[in-house]
Amino acid sequence: MRSAGPRYAPSPITLGPAPLSAPRTYQILLTAAPTAGLTAVKVGAAWRAASGFAHGRYWPNLRASQARAVIPGDDGVHTVAFVLDEEQHRPLAEYCRIVLERLQEHYEARARAR
């Protein structure tokens, strides 16, 4: 007859290093920014805002837009009309251009080295 006590499965034996996890996009950007001569924190902040827009979050609208009108409602609730502030989005476009140029330079250098 079996014991009613707890049963324990044997621990799996691991031979070698633990599996690696894929780096997150944000970490890749923080690492690549200085290589392209950019400030990692600024690139990371711009990417987070763009990612928020892409995923339908509301906070990038508050950070990177400008209020154009405030419309008071009869119930005391106000509606705020926002427009995209190009000056807030321009740095992201510039960061993308710079990183892509550096990437192309690295690929060309490797191609010539072969």
Poorly predicted spans: none
What is the CA-based Rg, rounded? 25 Å
The chain-level mean pLDDT equals: 84
Q: Which structural class should the secondary elements be placed in?
A: alpha+beta
Task: Report how far the terminal alpha carbons are from each other.
Answer: 71 Å
Keywords:
single chain; 114 residues; alpha+beta; 4 helices; 13% strand
Description of the structure:
- The chain is α+β, with helices and mostly antiparallel strands.
- Helices cover 53% and strands 13% of the residues.
- It has helices at 25-35, 40-54, 59-64, 86-113, and strands at residues 65-72, 78-84.
Secondary-structure blueprint:
Blueprint: H1 25-35, H2 40-54, H3 59-64, E1 65-72, E2 78-84, H4 86-113
Antiparallel strand pairs: 1-2
Helix pairs in contact: 1-2, 2-4
